[in-house]
Amino acid sequence: MEISECIEILSRQNDILIVSHVRPDGDTLGSSGALCSALRRMGKRAYMYKNPEITEKYLPYVAGFFPPAGFQEKYTVTVDTAEPSLFPKGFSGKPDMCIDHHPSNSRYTGNLLLGAKKSACGEIILELIKAMLGGIDKTEATLLYIAISTDTGCFQYSNTNSATFRAAAETLDGGANVHELNQRLFRKQSKARIMLEGMIFSGMSFHRNGGVAVATVTKEMMAKAGATENDCDDLASLSGRVEGAVVSVTIRENDDGGSKISVRSDPSVNSSDICAVYGGGGHAMAAGCTIDCPPEEAKGKILAAIDLIWK
């Protein structure tokens, strides 16, 4: 679907619900909030699904978009959500449209606006709002800066390109307070986060002559550090800091005893192919999957998948 088709469809809808993904990050929330704001400026009744896992870091930016009691959606749009397994807790609806930037999108909706070459879903939403309304307002600028900056690691990840910087510049022109946002999103960390990082780094393991770095985050580590979900943003980037690591893996223990796997890699190895071994996917250099076993067992399985893909 092209942007013009997306606009034509949305223009005919009302009572729109916008849905972020499980364990929502800055891209899914910033993109969803900006789209919701723009639809309201068009005169639409639009709300964001009240994702129960939104952390305190992002809550102030999106709380004003939650639906009132008794709201009944008539049209549902998922944002930055590649497949149904990533629907947020408590959501049981059937989406009508998906706006996403993951090449591995499973095409679970009839209407899909896919920008597989975009570094963040926020870039797609920016183009969509400009086409709908001619430009973004200050609220949308703030939300889209959050989306773009967080999904690129403050423009440090390999998915950052010249278009990323041009999109970010448009959010500055639109009124985003970059200094304040960067302090909140990237510079300041809680004491619990610092303690958790210390345990993660001290427990890292290295494989294939240092070409693979693996970090593990268990519930016991979380409890010892006094950490909550508010302290867990972008943990997947930590193992990638190791010099010489071509593939970096972060394994996080889930409440059900399984393990959430995040894989990052250099261009020479496809992260999505590694995660696809266990039904996951994502981008070529950033992907994820879930393995239904404890972290130590999951570690052996994901290392075997790396050996299978990285010849």
Notes on the protein architecture:
With 311 residues, the protein is α/β, with parallel strands linked by helices. It folds into two domains: 3-186, inorganic pyrophosphatase (n-terminal core); 191-309, Roll (Diaminopimelate Epimerase, Chain A, domain 1). It is built from eleven helices and eleven strands. The protein has helices spanning 3-11, 26-41, 59-62, 121-133, 138-151, 162-173, 178-187, 191-202, 219-225, 271-276, 295-309; strands at 16-19, 46-48, 75-79, 97-100, 111-114, 205-207, 212-217, 247-253, 259-265, 281-282, 286-291. The strands form two sheets. It has a six-stranded mixed beta sheet, with helices on both faces. Strands 2-1-3-4-5 form a five-stranded parallel beta sheet, with helices on one face. The longest helix is centred in the N-terminal third of the chain and has 16 residues, at 26-41. The chain starts with a helix and ends with a helix. The relative contact order is 0.11. The model has no long low-confidence stretch (mean pLDDT 96).
Quick structural overview:
The protein is of the alpha/beta class. The chain has two domains: about 5-185, inorganic pyrophosphatase (n-terminal core) (Alpha-Beta Complex); about 190-310, Diaminopimelate Epimerase, Chain A, domain 1 (Roll), CATH 3.10.310.30.
CATH topology of the largest domain: inorganic pyrophosphatase (n-terminal core)
Q: How many separate domains? A: 2
Beta-strand level of the residues, as a percent range? 15-25%
State the total count of DSSP E strands.
11
Shape field: globular
The main pleated sheet reads as: 6 strands, mixed
Largest beta sheet: strand ordering: 6-7-8-9-11-10
Number of helices: 11
- What is the radius of gyration? 19 Å
Order of H and E elements: HEHEHEEEHHHHHEEHEEHEEH
Distance between the termini: 36 Å
Named at the architecture level, the CATH assignment of the largest domain is: Alpha-Beta Complex
**Structural class from helices and strands?**
alpha/beta
CATH class of the largest domain: Alpha Beta
* Poorly predicted residue ranges: none
The CATH superfamily name of the largest domain is inorganic pyrophosphatase (n-terminal core)
